[in-house]
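FYI - complex with 6R9, inputs then prediction.
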Amino acid sequence: MSKDTTTAVPGTGDALENLSTESRKFAPSAEFAANAIVKASEYADAEADRPAFWGRQAREMLTWSKDFTKTLDWTNPPFATWFEDGEINAAYNALDRHVEAGNGDRVAIYFEGEPGDTRTYTYAQLTEEVKKAANAFEALGLVKGDRVAVYLPMIPEAVITLLACARIGAVHSVVFGGFSAEALRSRIDDAQAKLVVTADGTFRRGKPSSLKPAVDEALSAAGHTVENVVVVKRNGQDVDWVQGRDLWWADTVGAASAEHTAVGHAAEHPLFILYTSGTTGKPKGILHTTGGYLTQTAYTHKAVFDLHPETDVYWCTADVGWVTGHSYVTYAPLINGATQVIYEGTPDSPHQGRFWEIVQKYKVSILYTAPTAIRTFMKWGEDIPAKYDLSSIRLLGSVGEPINPEAWMWYRRVIGGNNAPIVDTWWQTETGAIMIAPLPGVTSTKPGSAQVPMPGIAVDVVDELGASVAHGHGGYLVIREPWPAMLRGIWGDNERYKDTYWARFDDMYFAGDGAKWDEDGDVWLLGRVDDVMNVSGHRLSTTEIESALVSHPSVAEAAVVGAADETTGQAVVAFVILRGSAVEDPDIVATLRNHVGHEIGPIAKPKTILVVPELPKTRSGKIMRRLLKDVAEGRDAGDSSTLADNTVMNQIAESLRA
Ligand code: 6R9
């Protein structure tokens, strides 16, 4: 490994040629437009005075325990504050206030477990559960500002835990259940968590799959800060138990009082940390605070999904381990009083129609999922969804990676009955909430484009020097003005925050994505321009996987690239140089894949590992990943004239032929 600076210049290449020819447009039906909550005038209202616009949303969408007098403070960039002197409780906004308003009997969550077990929570019941969890956590000694690591499957207890933390001002840090003990350990250590909330395990494709053993392994070494582990019984498997440290959820939360009064926390009080891959090895703890985050997530959820809480049934398929499962499962839908579906399992369990069976069963009207899932459904065939009644669907959303026009058209025709608007939503862990998306009752949608910045959001596409590019041209996606849900920093590392996002262009947030304006002024996202891969919508760092590979004694050097993949968008392809006798080991590829799985998690396992004699490097020693990507994608390697040794590519080709 060694960092590659030879990134492709966005706005060139085949993908862009295809995009430029896209001329199909779909206007919302007259009926949809007439009933839409947010109208076209919102853009001008917001444009007139952005901070004032967000101030209006903050008061309209949320209940503050203490009103604010200030909106944005940007006197110390890149550190923003929003609604700074206001006080608010996130859990009160998501729960209690709906009960107080007489909506306690409305369903908040329809839970569908993978094995087919179900649970329904009304707003009154969910409020009670969160109050119990808040009491239980406080009884364990948790106080405002303490960090809680959450390592749970997609079950209601995940939402309950997050809201209970928010209620008492504890800061949650969710670690995706697919990450390894090692990844969990480093995140627990970085955030200095005091409590871990986990489960014995979950179900994956009909089989029990465990979680608690990874927590035990992560906490096996001395020196960590964790005092207790609360364990939800989910799949009933046997677990090891550390007396005095481990507690069953049923014995703690289950036994706690259901009386708990929420107090307001400062608008800038930390709400959560969520780790995401960056261009260097160490994951970044993205920090979000309360008032601005809640304002923008709630507003965008209402505006982009046209949420009518009395009649809609909303289903976002994201896991709570990702930001989408925070913003658009845990917070925004509940703040907006929505009825939502939560599903624990995979789309093909026990059969490939499971998603459509769920849509039919709960009469889902708004479905929010990822392109990688849509492409998988396409592969399985349209006769599968055709077996179910999908007529309840009136709006479709997409998130996580660029959606190719073919998948977009399939989604519209097969799932959306040729009628439901599709909202392609661009945003990031760092942005906290949706930044670019159509407004479904206003925008004529285009297959493959996220199209327009949200009202109140200032997006631009700039060239290498930071100058705006003209319509019809590509460059780097930037955000010109601070926004309410923006990250407030990287946990414990202000310098890295400045360097990563604000150093590339003066006074502008650099997102790390390439983008293009088309002739109509719509935005097209072109993928990452840095060393971050996007596999099934999950961000993985090339450097992090390379570090994992070279940490194995058999590996001398490694280079990782994201190669285009029909289903997952990108797939991890690793090139490795082996040490000594490892070359003769017939199982080395499997060994290395498992090693990466152990170091980072199963999702990071390379799809392909190619053993090569050399890696292509520039004279300054930088690996030319561009050339390796050509190999991985089956093309002739491009210009290799800057290589220190230009026979290397031939050696690689030879070794792969052998
Ligand atoms: C919400 C989320 C962020 C990265 C982002 C970009 C890609 C997300 C996209 C999209 C094109 C979309 N991305 N949504 N690319 N069109 N609609 O996914 O957050 O996990 O932090 O990933 O995902 O590359 O920079 P996160």
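The chain has a mean pLDDT of 92. Residues 276, 322-324, 399-402, 424-429, 450, 511-513, 525, 528, 534, 537, 539 surround 6R9 (CB under 6 Å).
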